[in-house]
Specification:
The structure is a single chain. By secondary structure, this protein is an alpha/beta fold. The chain has one domain: Rossmann fold (3-Layer(aba) Sandwich). It is 46% helix and 20% strand. It is built from 5 helices and 5 strands, in the order βαβαβαβαβα. Helix 3 links the parallel strand 3 and strand 4.
Length: 125
């Protein structure tokens, strides 16, 4: 059965690029859904129960930290695997994210798309 991945990022170019790269590399191993804010991310996570969530921090309507707090407050979302993928290299935000049980923190400018996909695959093994 394909592993479900949810990408929550308001950067539509990045979202499409990472979704396409994951699907191409996975060759049928993954189902990928993209939404563009934390509010839609919560709805999608509840409906789909993804195996992995890639979440940006800075988004309209509901940002990543607020998304994580809401996700962790739900019984169904308490243990879902989340990796933050963002442009922010803010140490306080990293600490807050890690305190909310994220599996990793990726600064987009420090990694290529291929490196991010490799990390996704490592987490899902």
């Amino acid at each position: 059965m394909a592993k479900k991945i949810l990408v929550i990022d308001d950067d539509k170019v990045f979202s499409k690029t990472i979704c396409d790269a994951i699907l191409a590399k996975g060759q049928g191993k993954y189902e990928v859904t993209a939404v563009f804010d934390g509010k839609d991310g919560l709805l999608s996570a509840q409906k789909e129960t993804p195996d992995l969530i890639l979440c940006d921090l800075v988004m309209p309507i509901m940002g990543g930290i607020e998304f994580l707090k809401n996700l962790r407050a739900e019984k169904w979302g308490k243990y879902l695997t989340v990796i933050i993928v963002t442009q922010l290299s803010d140490v306080d935000k990293m600490g807050e994210g890690l305190g909310l049980g994220v599996r990793g923190y990726i600064v987009k400018s420090d990694y290529s798309i291929d490196e991010i996909v490799r990390q996704v695959e490592d987490v899902l093994k």
